[in-house]
Structure formats: structure tokens, C-alpha cells
Design brief:
There is one protein chain. Helices cover 42% and strands 15% of the residues. The protein is an alpha+beta fold and 376 residues long. It is globular. Strands 5, 6, 7, 8 and 9 form a five-stranded antiparallel beta sheet that branches. It has a four-stranded antiparallel beta sheet with strand order 1-2-4-3, with helices on one face. It starts with 7 loop residues before the first helix and ends in a 6-residue tail after the last helix. It has 15 helices and nine strands. It has one domain (1-376): NADH Oxidase (3-Layer(aba) Sandwich). It comes from Streptomyces griseicoloratus. This is Nitroreductase.
């Protein structure tokens, strides 16, 4: 089985449903309409991010040659992300899209990561200087990328393909890296831990409440907020999704039980492999953003190859919660053992495989909404 699809366009579109109607999904249709800084930001807002909280704001300055990127601290996830791990990973994902879009639009991007302990919301500066237009397959995959929560086909991925994906990390020994858990015994071990971590999350009242805050059950809610988790992005068959939108919104406990059941019977049961982005210091905002850039490259590469990626962050979510509450580090130790290198730490975990059906499209706030002079 080769790594190159016979038809790249078909590979990218076969597993991503077209955006639904409504202004909440216009960002997916209009993202490539401008070549200026606003067009670069339009690509950034389509990036992967945990629970679709979209934790970013941007400011354009200096004759539209500078973009300041801010963490929107009003969109923190509380008990589900007590130390802002996922917030900064999401910013890194957005930055990767922006760098790719800048090159495709004829700019040479100069990226500087600038988190300041006294001003943690100011995350990065992207400077745009004139350059050659340079499109790439990763750039072309941006509007087709989706986080897939549905079943994957029970087909293994060839080792050369996994190695090609791992090579997206580059050759910096101190930078982010990709660790695979692809053999059956490894997959079984990771799957068991992910299910146990999900059980722990929903048993934690604070984490359960924090997650339910981002559920958008009706079209009106989606159009008003243009963020969060929706019925269409839960990986259900089309008929079930249609019925789900016509029924009353599920209670928090019902939604938690659905998530646990799907984690056990769909997400971990059908994964071809589990991937783990590792860094030297998972508490460092710069390393989180660098790891987020790698995660987004993985997403885009997978999209270009007709593969799908689904985030499975339950172990890191629980490890951070253990630290916050001073609990025994059950999942912290499990992550250390899975990484197996005292010089590396787990940042994010995901599953990968060949999707059985198209993934739904999440809503996005438009560029006009995320522009501002300051996100503090």
C-alpha cells in the first residue's frame, strides 16, 4: 500500500462533508478570498483546537505586515484545561495554518513566539514580507481538514506511512516529536487508559460541567456562538445526526454516557494507531505552540492522504487535573510510562486511521469577530 493517493483532491474531499448552510460555517467557504493579512488570519481560524473553543484573537498592524496573535483568556476551559495546555496547542495549530497561508499568498512569514509571564495572552508575532507564492499540499488541505469522531475502517496503516508522518516533526532533537503506538499490544494498552481516563473525567463534576458548557444543541445556538461541539461533529451516522437535531438537547449526564460509550466502542476500538506529540517541557507555552504546529501538520498531511485524525486528550486532561487538585498522579505516571523517555513529556494524544464516513464541519467565528487590538 503506497502513501500517495491516486487522486489527491478526491482523497481530501471524500471524508469531509461540505459545510452546512448558515453564517456560522461561512469561514470554511470564504477563507481564501484575500491575499492580505486578513486572508492569513482566515486560514488560521480553521485550525484544529480542543472542543472548538477557538482560543485566539488577532491584531493587524504596521501597514498590514504584522499580525499579533493573542490567547483569548475569556475562552479558557477551566477544569478541563487548568494550566492552559490545550489553549496554547490550539494557538500553535492556528499558527501553522497561518504560516502556510502566508507563503501561498506571496508573503515570507517571520514567526516569533513571545509568551511573557507578565502578559500571557500575547502569544506570537507573525511578520509578512514580500516573497514568492508557494502553495503546498498541506495548504490545499486546510479547507478539507476536520476532526473526525466517527468510526475508522479496521485497516492497518503501513509503517512507511507512519514514518513519513513522523518525519513532519523535522530534525531538531530539542523540538516536538511524534511517538507512535501502533502495534496491537500498544494499542490495547493506550485504549484501556483512554477509556479509564474518560470515566475519570465524567466522574469529576467540575470537568463534566466544563465540557458541557461548550455543547451547542440547536441551530440558533450555533449561529449565535459559532463555536463549540455540535450534533453534526459527533461522528454519528447521518440519520442519527438528523434525528438528534430534532430532539431536545441531551442532559449533561446523557451526553457524558454517550461520550464514554463512543470512546470505548468507536474511538479506541477502530483506531489504526495512536499518536502522541511529545516535547521537552509540556508546561512551556512556546513548546506547546511548537507542538501544536506539528499537530496541525499531521492533520493536514492526513487529510491529503485520505486519512482522518481524532483528538483523544483524556489522559492529559486528567493528568493536569491531578496536578491541580494534588491527587495521586495516576495518569501522569501512565503518560510517563507510555513516553518512556525521562527527557520527553506527552503534550497531546490522537488516533489516526481511514475514516468510514465523512466528518461533520464545526462552526467558526469570522475574522471580523476575532480581530482586536488586545485580547486581555
Amino acid at each position: 500500500m503506497g502513501t500517495e493517493p491516486l487522486d489527491p483532491v478526491a482523497a481530501m474531499t471524500a471524508y469531509a462533508a461540505p459545510p452546512p448552510r448558515g453564517a456560522a460555517f461561512d469561514a470554511w467557504r470564504t477563507w481564501d478570498g484575500r491575499d492580505d493579512a486578513h486572508g492569513v488570519i482566515a486560514a488560521g481560524i480553521l485550525a484544529a483546537n480542543a472542543r472548538n473553543v477557538q482560543p485566539w484573537r488577532f491584531a493587524v498592524g504596521e501597514h498590514a505586515t504584522r499580525i499579533d496573535v493573542y490567547a483569548d483568556l475569556t475562552r479558557r476551559q477551566g477544569a478541563l484545561d487548568p494550566f492552559d495546555r490545550e489553549l496554547y496547542v490550539g494557538l500553535g495549530c492556528a499558527l501553522e495554518n497561518m504560516v502556510l497561508a502566508a507563503r501561498a499568498r506571496g508573503h515570507e512569514p517571520g514567526l516569533h513566539l513571545v509568551p511573557d509571564p507578565d502578559r500571557p495572552e500575547h502569544a506570537a508575532v507573525l511578520r509578512l514580507t514580500p516573497g514568492e507564492r508557494a502553495r503546498s499540499e498541506l495548504y490545499d488541505a486546510i479547507p478539507h481538514r476536520r476532526t473526525n469522531r466517527g468510526p475508522f475502517l479496521r485497516l492497518p496503516l503501513p509503517r512507511p506511512l507512519l514514518d513519513e508522518i513522523a518525519a513532519l516533526a523535522g530534525h531538531d532533537p530539542g523540538g516536538p516529536a511524534l511517538l507512535w503506538h501502533a502495534e496491537e499490544a500498544e494499542r490495547d494498552r493506550v485504549a484501556r487508559l483512554l477509556v479509564e481516563a474518560t470515566e475519570a473525567v465524567i466522574a469529576d463534576e467540575g470537568q463534566s460541567l466544563a465540557g458541557h458548557r461548550w455543547y451547542r444543541g440547536t441551530d440558533r445556538e450555533i449561529e449565535r456562538s459559532r463555536d463549540g461541539m455540535t450534533v453534526d461533529t459527533q461522528g454519528m451516522p447521518p440519520l442519527m445526526s438528523t434525528l438528534g437535531k430534532r430532539l431536545p438537547a441531551p442532559s449533561r449526564r446523557t451526553a457524558d454516557r454517550f461520550w464514554l460509550r463512543n470512546t470505548r466502542t468507536v474511538h479506541v476500538a477502530t483506531a489504526a494507531a495512536f499518536g502522541m506529540v511529545t516535547v521537552a517541557d509540556a508546561d512551556d507555552p512556546v513548546e506547546r505552540m511548537r507542538g501544536g504546529r506539528l499537530l496541525q501538520r499531521i492533520h493536514l498531511f492526513a487529510t491529503a492522504r485520505g486519512l482522518a485524525v481524532g483528538h483523544l486528550n483524556m489522559m492529559t486532561v486528567r493528568a493536569d487535573r491531578e496536578r491541580e487538585l494534588g491527587l495521586p498522579p495516576r495518569f501522569g505516571k501512565a503518560l510517563e510510562e507510555l513516553v518512556g523517555d525521562p527527557g520527553r513529556q506527552a503534550l497531546v494524544t490522537f488516533r489516526i486511521g481511514r475514516p468510514a464516513r465523512p466528518a461533520g464541519t464545526s462552526p467558526r467565528r469570522p475574522v471580523a469577530t476575532v480581530l482586536g487590538t488586545d485580547a486581555g
